[in-house]
Amino acid sequence: MDDWADLCRSGPLPDIKKPPSDCAIGCGSTVRREAGIPTDSFSLIVIGAIALVAFWLVFSLVRKAFGLVLLVALAIGAWVLWSNPQLLHSVTGTFLVAP
User: Where do the TM regions start and end (predicted)?
Assistant: First the structure.
């Protein structure tokens, strides 16, 4: 049989019991609430400002990383052409055709 079918046939799930109040960690005395999106204006403004700063940091870092990768690629290409004169001649021959 299918486990899902057995679970559906068994009826509602049993209630999870609250831990005893003499729990060593103190977990019996606290009531947990589900976290939700805040609705007050100040919290929303602060979240928006943090999000803007995070986006700015990410995109500025991505831009700098892209620039560094481009510079490294150009440097490697220049080194390969410098160290291989035949490749340099074939590349410049395609761009600079002698009449």
Answer: 42-59, 65-82
Direct distance between the N- and C-terminal alpha carbons of the chain, in angstroms, rounded to an integer: 82
Residue 20 near residue 28 (C-beta atoms within 8 A): yes
pTM of the model: 0.44
CA–CA dist 79, 93 (Å, integer) = 18
C-alpha to C-alpha distance for 68 and 74, rounded to whole angstroms: 10
Task: Provide the residue ranges of all domains of the chain, joining segments of one domain with +.
Answer: 3-95
pLDDT digit string (tens) for the chain, length 99 residues? 456 566 556 656 555 555 555 555 555 545 566 777 778 889 899 999 999 999 999 999 999 999 999 999 999 999 998 998 888 888 887 666 555
Orientation of helix 85-95 relative to helix 41-83, angle to 10°: 110
